[in-house]
Design a protein that fits this description.
Radius of gyration: 20 Å
CATH architecture of one domain: 3-Layer(aba) Sandwich
Helix content: 25-40%
Shape: globular
Structural class: alpha/beta
Number of helices: 11
Distance between the termini: 34 Å
Length: about 350
Amino acid sequence: MRCLRGLFGPMSLSADLAGRVIKLDDCDLTTGRCYAYCPRSQVDWEELHSRIFGKGYQEIEIGPAHEILMAKAKDPVWKAKVQNGGVVSALIDFAIQEEIIQAAVLTQRDTNLLPGGQIVSQRSQILCCSGSSYISGPTLEALNQGPWKDGERIGLVGLPCQVLALTKMKVSPLETKTPIERVNLIIGLFCTWALDYKLFKTFLEDRFGHSPIQKLDITPPPERLLKVWVDDRVQDIPLDEIRAFIRQACQVCPDMTSEFADLSVGTVEGAINWNTVIIRTEQGKELVHRAMEAGIIEGHPLPDENLKHLKEASWLKKQRALLALKEQEDPADSYLVLPKGLSEKILSSSEEIKP
């Protein structure tokens, strides 16, 4: 699992370098910021929900939600460039224009598919970060390194594991050496898994040589295909052919919908060019409603059938994560602490999911 790089001071944890994990330093601390912030060090899910949302872990299917919408960006500039409904890019652009934030950390992939963090403050930069790579990368490195201007409020778009790391930064009692106190907006992406960069890159090179990959997209059920845009054509690859490249840490992640974000955004099953938007905090609610009033995005409540499918998918990811954790050599050392009896409830196949 990629930890958060030793960018908070001399530390011993690891970093992604072109998909490889390297040792940074022989730190002799048994605890510290690296350990406290890492999304795979021990985390009490109930306590963290209480600290962030002011209540325990009650909405266990997809996390806390004020509203759940089906939305898309209205400006054609987003429709021509971005993936799905373009809501994330449009909201980041709007938040910067409205000075809710002054800059944001997004993820941009290079020509070799490796994603990395990119600080953006203009629409052209946001457009360069649109689209999905399905590979985990050190996005938070850009947040930690900066540079940032004094008083600059920051937005960040990340995967569930990255959102969890940010949340742990927020509540940590340790001395702050990151600009986490200025992160004013967190948009989390839906994620079922991410791929190992080196293995996936080798696979694509075996298929397509060294032709640059222009775009990647995964179709929803029942099709379940990885679509690869290369050499001005689209190639379909069954998902079963790339499952072997899923990172091991993804197997024990229970969070499909970025439950600790202000807003969580993903696809809408069966609806091309639309996003599902889960509004979790007052900050997220204000941004979405202002954007709708300004005509930046359009949206309406997610239909019950789509909501039911979303909850089922999220519930199944939690089940898979808990089963994987049970198969560990010593389950007592599991990083994930859940309220008493909740693990058994999630693992129960008789649980009925309702919209």
